Amino acid sequence: MDYKGKKVLVTGGASGIGREIALEYARAGALVIVADKDYEGDRFVRGELRPIMPECCFFHCDLALSSACENLMQSIFEQFDDLDIIINNAGVSQFCSLWEETVEHWDYVLNSNLRAMFLISREYMINRRKKGYKERYGRIVNISSTRSLMSEPFSFVSSVPFTVNAGLLKSPRYHPGLPHWGQWSQFPRRIPPRSGIL
To answer: Model's pTM, two decimal places?
Structure first.
């Protein structure tokens, strides 16, 4: 597929699925913006994405913080004017027994895996509406997990945001004024190298 001229944000793009998605979009001609709390994202962008697409860039941010989500989107719209595609991929997966769980850890996981998706998507729409871009091409892709359908030992906290995320994937297509979210689907959490773009 040809994504020349498209601007794509990939959250959690420093490693794993996000890294593969970012690479595939860059190979397809897109300007890729990687947002991650891991500074490996900066090395990845400079070492692997920019040789393909020189305009690709990295934003260091912890999306568990609401201010980081808002600042990220404001900075992107100031620097690039608009986004065509958002891949809400950022998330943490940490295993812990329920009786050892803390409120602070619970909040961090939900804020990273669920609230960040909401805030990034909301700020996207706010910035687009301010600029009068309501009718422009736009796509939001939210990455979930099969943990929304099944669980693993000590994965209680990690499973909750994925389950809610899977439910949210179904509802926005009925909400007027949103960019295309597509039909709800389950994808495996592993993307083989060079498998193509979602």
So the answer is: 0.80
